[in-house]
Structure formats: C-alpha cells, structure tokens
C-alpha cells in the first residue's frame, strides 16, 4: 500500500505542483491519477520513487517512509514506465529488457531467458529480440518499456502516460493487454493519465486532480460514472 500523507511539492520558483495530497493506493490494485496538464500528476508519481523530493508531508510504502529507505534499494522495488519508453537506443530489445537483471548481477544467459519470457508476456514477437528500439513501432516500444519495468519483478509499478503517444487502435490493445497482465501479476500500480476514459477503463480507484495540485475526488470508476 502506498500512502500519501499531506504531501506537498513547491518548486524553487514558487510553483505549488502538489498541495497537501492525502490518499492511499491499495496493494495489488491500480490507482489512476487523472487531471489536466499541469495538475501535478507527474510530480506526485516521481515523489514515490524519490526522483522528486516533497517539500511537505510524507509518502509511505507498506508503512515505511520512502525517505528512510536507501534510494537504490527503493527503486529496485519500483518499476517505472514513461510515455516514450526511454529505451537505450544502442542496445537490442533483449538487452534493454535485461538491463536491470544485468545490473543486479544476474547471469547473462539467465537474464536473457527472462527477457525472452517477458517479451512473450507483454505480447512481443520474440523474433524482435535482436532488433534495436528504432526498428520497432511506438506501441511495440511501449511493450518493451513495460517488460523492462517488470524485469526485476517489482511489487510497485509507476506508469506515466504509458499509452498516450500511440494511435487509438494500438492504445486500446495495449490497455486490454495491460489489464490481462495485471490480473495475473497483481502489482501495486499508480498510473498517470490526462484521459478520463482511460482512467475509468483501467483504474480500480481514480484520483481526480485539479491544477494547483488539489485532490478533487477519489472514487471508483462506477462511482464516477453514476454521477
Ligand atoms: P513530460 O513528462 O510531459 O515530457 P516534463 O516532465 O519535462 O515533461 O514536464 C512536465 C511539466 O512540467 C510540463 O508542463 C513542463 O512544462 C513543466 N516543467 C518541467 N520542468 C519545468 C521547469 N524547470 N520549470 C517550469 N516548468 C517545468
Ligand atoms: P502534470 O503531470 O499533471 O502535467 P506536473 O507535475 O508535470 O503536472 O507539473 C505540475 C506543475 O508544476 C505545473 O505547473 C508545472 O509547470 C510545474 N513544474 C513541474 N516541474 C517543475 C519544475 N522542475 N520547476 C518548476 N515548476 C515545475
């Protein structure tokens, strides 16, 4: 469980990106942060893995304050997927996916076998293993990004607009596959999007944010739809 306890972030220029955010993202479920550009979604997400430090309040993962955990250790337990997959351009697909296991000292052969298995899981043709990111479509690159984030089998996944840059048909496929994968894996997921339809489709819980970093409401998709 991830708990935001009156979390605020004011940037040095005075911008208040997040204002006393209080919420819980339950374990094994998908919590979506939705709202217009600039409402503090990315800032909130990046405070979970300490890419950004809050200026007020605290974030707890399973009752442990994230600022009290060594940040390398913290990040091993947190997969991170962004809009443009952020793959290493000069590494093959299989080496991109295996990059975290390599870092952790996993035997190369074993790491590659794991990467191939993950390619299948996320719906990538394993014949792409030796290709480079630029040789894949946007949707395929996002699948690689998801596979790479899963490679250390982290209990928590942070996803920042992972499906926003692909065309609507591919987006739909990626969303469906993501839901199937999650029903197997049961990760604790915080998912950021500006698209309310995506939030309703994917979220177990939807946190609606307003510019200024206020939580407007926290509801289930069913509750949002019945209003
Ligand atoms: P994205 O994740 O959308 O590619 P960024 O994370 O770089 O983009 O920025 C997210 C938002 O924060 C954007 O609205 C951007 O304009 C704003 N932003 C990023 N860095 C700064 C900064 N140093 N000063 C002001 N606004 C910034
Ligand atoms: P969202 O992800 O919802 O688009 P962000 O968290 O990126 O929102 O940004 C929230 C607010 O903080 C925006 O007003 C943005 O311009 C500002 N912001 C983001 N990063 C910085 C930064 N590094 N310095 C100053 N302001 C920033």
From TrEMBL:
The lineage of its organism: Bacteria, Bacillati, Actinomycetota, Actinomycetes, Jatrophihabitantales. Keywords: ATP-binding, Nucleotide-binding, Transport. Residues 2-227 form the ABC transporter domain. The keyword ATP-binding applies. Transmembrane segments: none annotated. Belongs to the ABC transporter superfamily. GO terms for molecular function: ATP binding. It comes from the Bacteria. This is ATP-binding cassette domain-containing protein. The keyword ATP-binding applies. It comes from Jatrophihabitans telluris.
